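User: quick one, sequence for these tokens?
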């Protein structure tokens, strides 16, 4: 129980520190010169739903507003070509960006991920301590147990959709 409490307090403290910091100060995964790709809510009309890329086990950590939250999920690619996730929208948040937690000099840091590759015939898990969606500027309060729609856009122009369950702040996986 003590580990859970310490973990929640650490998460809340880092979330508050993140919210208070300028977001362009995060070090991008590929290069420090790149900037975050923030995505507004909604999808372009006429987007093609992918037949080979699917999203499952989507969940969002519930944190008190206006604290940024995080989204986690699994992307599976049954196609013969690599898929690249380039943006994500979540109906309850006005800004969403892709991040990766990296270890640099013994310190964990969040790095912006401009695009995330999912190998052909493989999957990629977005989970705490790894890749995740940074969810900012909530447009409404989210109750634990609620479901929120998410839209995923890939470099090919194809899209995928998922319902994400809102989990308590101390959740570590689906």
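Assistant:
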């Amino acid at each position: 129980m003590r580990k859970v409490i310490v973990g929640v307090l650490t998460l809340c403290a880092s979330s508050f520190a993140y919210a208070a910091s300028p977001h362009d100060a995060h070090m991008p995964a590929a290069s420090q010169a790149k900037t975050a790709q923030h995505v507004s809510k909604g999808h372009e009309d006429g987007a093609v739903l992918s037949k080979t890329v699917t999203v499952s086990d989507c969940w969002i950590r519930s944190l008190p507003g206006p604290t940024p939250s995080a989204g986690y999920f699994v992307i599976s690619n049954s196609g013969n070509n690599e898929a690249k996730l380039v943006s994500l929208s979540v109906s309850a948040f006005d800004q969403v960006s892709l991040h990766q937690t990296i270890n640099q000099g013994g310190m964990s840091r969040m790095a912006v991920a401009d695009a995330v590759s999912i190998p052909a015939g493989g999957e990629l898990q977005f989970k705490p301590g790894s890749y995740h969606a940074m969810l900012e500027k909530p447009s409404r309060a989210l109750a634990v147990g609620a479901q929120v729609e998410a839209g995923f856009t890939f470099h090919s122009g194809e899209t995928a959709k998922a319902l994400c369950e809102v989990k308590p702040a101390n959740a570590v996986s689906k």
